[in-house]
Amino acid sequence: MNPKGAVAIVTGSSSGVGAATAKLLAQKGANVVINYASNHDGAIKAAEACQALGVEALICQGDVADDNACKNIVGQTLEKFGRIDVLVNNAGITKFNAHGNLAGLEKDDFFNIYGVNVVGPYQMIRAAEKALRASQDAAVVNVASIAGVQGVGSSVAYAASKGALLTMTKSLARVMGPEIRVNAVCPGFIQGEWLEQGLGAETYEKMLQALEAKAPLGRTCTAESVAESIVSFIDGHSIITGEHMILDGGAHLI
Asked: pTM for this one?
C-alpha cells in the first residue's frame, strides 16, 4: 500500500509508540486519526506534529474498551475523510504485578486489561470492517508484545491479553482477506516514560542495561523503532497476513 493520501486510525496515539506511528505515517503522506482516552494535551501535540508534515489530522477521544466509542471513532473518521485504509490497534493498559504474586491480581484487573488490549482491537476492527474492505488494500496492525509470546512482562494478566491478541490476529487474518491484511508486532522492552514510571527508575535502568548487554544487536526498542516496524506492515509485506514480528534486538534468541 502507498500511504500517500490514505487514512489511518491509530488508537492510543497521544504519546509513545502510537504518536510515533502517526507521525511516521504522516511523513509518508497519510492523513491520520489521533485517538486518546485521557491525554488530551498529548493528542493535540501529536496532531499538530502530523499537520506540520502537510497532512490532515483528526483528534478522537474514546476508550476502545467501549464499543460505542469505537463506533464513534470510525464514524467521525468517515465523516471527515470518507474512507479508512489503515487501522493500528496500539491502545493498551497493564497492571504492574510480579508474576509470582498471584494475590496481586483481581478478577477485575483481568477484565479491565482484556477490555482494552483484546476486546478493544476486536471492536475497532468490527466497526471499521466495511470501510477497510472498501479500501481493497487495507492493513490492520495490532500492537502486541513479547509478553504474549514468552509469557513475560508487567503481569500475568498483561501477558495473557497479548497472547490472546496474537491468536485473534491469526483468526481474523483468515477471514478478512483478500481486502485486508491483519498482522501484529511484538515489542520487547520499550524505552520511555510509560515503562519507567511502571517499573520505577532504578529497576527500569537495570533492566535496560541488562537487556542491551545480552541482545545480539545491543539495543532495545524505542517508540520510533517500533513505529518503523508497524509501518513496514502497512507500506510493505504485501503478501503477509496473520503473522507477528518480534522486536527486541534479538534478546529472545539468548
From this structure: 0.96
